[in-house]
Amino acid sequence: MAAETGDGNCLGWAARDPSGFLSPFKFNRRAVGSDDVSIKITHCGVCNGDLLWSTNEFGDSIYPVVPGHEIAGIVQEVGANVDRFKIGDHVGVGFFVNSCRDCELCNNDLEFHCSKGAIITFNSVDVDGTITKGGFSTFMVVHHEYCFKIPDKYPLEFAAPLLCAGLTVYAPMKLHKMDQPGKRLGVIGLGGLGHMTVKFGKAFGLEVTVLSTTMSKKDEALTLLGADRFVLSSDEQQMNAIAKSLDFIIDTASTDHSLDPYLKLLKTTGVIVIVAAPGEMKFSPINIVLGMNTIAGSAVAGRKMTQEMLDYCAAHDIYPIIETIPMHYVNEAFKRLRARDVKYRFVIDIQTSLAEFGNDVDRAYAVEPAKTAFGIKAGIRRIVEAEGIPYTYVSSNFFAGYFLPGLSQPGSTTPPRDKVVILGDGNPKVGASSGGRNGGEKGNEDDGETQDEEEWSEFINVDAAPPTRQEN
């Protein structure tokens, strides 16, 4: 079994405990076997599942957890038996990375439901006994059967969310024949899953109605996504106006809610499919019995449909709406994800913000936003994986970053120096000064935050001793 310590050939970001706080972590990927491909990860989407397993919401997290199952990248090595891929191919990896490929379910394109148990992309026991680690990392090794070709013209950053968010709604829409032009589809919720449902629905030629409890979603639904109708689901009059008008409903809402108001919108023999995982959903059986309705559930699909979905999106120019972030922003992204503050999917730019450091975790370090319950000193204390690296750190508001002493910020014209002062506006200032920020100024015009000069100066001129490296 490969050692799972703080050393290894791959650099990722891991949660060490149920706090879910992620920080740099080195671990070993297995050697490329005859049936494997090695993928240089360029982008990875951020799914609610990444947050839930990082914080042990399901009670089965195996720490350290390296999340990430919406993975896009470039093939960098192939095994001797692999002829489906070549070096340089654009590929993706989704929610699972292996199955028996021999049971009835696997033989019917339902590998995720493998009777012997599919191996999940992270937090699962792999064939060699190690714990799988996901796409919040520089590269991965995977059996070629669970690697999917991303069409060359399709940008990798947009492909990543398709491997979970896209597939999660595409699969039940195809299974339940929701691709019949002219049929009417209702979409509950307008987040990462919901907005992809609208996009697929329009591509299939459906009349799409967005059902939301939030009136502010109306313009997004109609103008940005092109839905045909928006209904405020908390407005009884609006809901009554579309009673028994929908052929299908996809329910993407992750909070507890009753199904009864939505079942009344279905035509006779209509279908509602639940693709999210709220804690509890209630309904009156009589609403199903009288309407001859079907309530179904669905998760991700098998290999065949995954490739079909990727090809369909490329052929029909279907792209998720994403917010691209650097790796060091992931803890803030988790906070925003929990608050449902994202339109509509975070995608981590692994290639730029993590892979540029290779596997040199000793030189990569992370900082949390200083505006926390513990203030700026906590920001200093939360720097991780730095061994003997002199640094000077200043942070404000919600900025979080990592920079290497001796280097400029990526894309910056600031010349390299042996120290970097990180400011809340994201611009490194070289050297150090006493007093307030940038030589005596107080506050930050960009974020409106004011800090006491003494508080700033305490950190501006201090070469703080690096913390001890965290193992596991």
CATH T-level fold name of the largest domain: Quinone Oxidoreductase, Chain A, domain 1
Radius of gyration: 24 Å
Largest sheet data: 7 strands, mixed
- Estimate percent helicity: 10-25%
In what range is the share of β-strand residues? 15-25%
Q: Class of the largest domain, according to the CATH hierarchy?
A: Alpha Beta
Q: Classify the secondary structure makeup into a structural class.
A: alpha/beta
Number of domains: 3
CATH architecture of the largest domain: Alpha-Beta Complex
Family: Belongs to the zinc-containing alcohol dehydrogenase family.
Cofactor: Zn(2+)
Pfam families: ADH_N, ADH_zinc_N, NmrA
Keywords: Metal-binding, Oxidoreductase, Zinc
Please name the defining characteristics of this protein.
14 helices, 472 residues, six-stranded parallel β-sheet, globular, zinc, ADH_Zn_CS, seven-stranded mixed β-sheet, 3 domains, NmrA-like, Quinone Oxidoreductase, Chain A, domain 1, GroES-like_sf, zinc ion binding, disordered N terminus, alpha/beta
Structure description:
- This protein is α/β, with parallel strands linked by helices and 472 residues long.
- The protein folds into three domains: 10-164 and 302-353, Quinone Oxidoreductase, Chain A, domain 1; 167-297, NAD(P)-binding Rossmann-like Domain (Rossmann fold), CATH 3.40.50.720; 362-465, no CATH class.
- Helix content is 22%, strand content 21%.
- The protein has 14 helices and 22 strands.
- It has helices spanning 48-54, 156-159, 165-175, 192-203, 218-224, 236-241, 260-263, 285-291, 303-315, 330-338, 350-353, 375-381, 437-440, 453-460; strands at residues 10-15, 22-27, 36-46, 71-78, 90-93, 96-98, 119-120, 139-143, 148-149, 184-188, 207-212, 229-232, 246-251, 257-258, 266-274, 281-282, 294-297, 322-325, 345-349, 392-393, 421-422, 428-429.
- Strands 3, 4, 5, 8, 9, 18 and 19 form a seven-stranded mixed beta sheet that branches. Strands 12-11-10-13-15-17 form a six-stranded parallel beta sheet, with helices on both faces. Strands 20-21-22 form a three-stranded mixed beta sheet, with no helix packed on it.
- It is globular, with a radius of gyration of 24 Å.
- The model is unreliable at 1-5 and 362-472 (pLDDT under 50).
